[in-house]
């Protein structure tokens, strides 16, 4: 019903088409980013099988979405193994 109303408004006012496009694009991008965050190494969904998943990551794992100055390939793990 909402989609039908949006299409009717877009037919009457063609200037709304870019606005609908960018609203949908922003909502889709935000949803994809939230899904990416939920699947990250610092989120624990099942505490019985793997209570601390961040301890099993390789030190060369890139944590940030964009790493400009850090070269993760040359890092070495300084801490003890748990």
UniProtKB/TrEMBL annotation:
Membrane-spanning parts:
16-35
Q: Which domain of life is it from?
A: Eukaryota
Which keywords has UniProt assigned to this entry?
Membrane, Transmembrane, Transmembrane helix
Matching PANTHER family: NADH DEHYDROGENASE [UBIQUINONE] 1 ALPHA SUBCOMPLEX SUBUNIT 4-LIKE 2, NADH-UBIQUINONE OXIDOREDUCTASE MLRQ SUBUNIT
Q: What is this protein called?
A: NDUFA4 mitochondrial complex associated like 2
High-level lineage: Eukaryota, Metazoa, Chordata, Craniata, Vertebrata
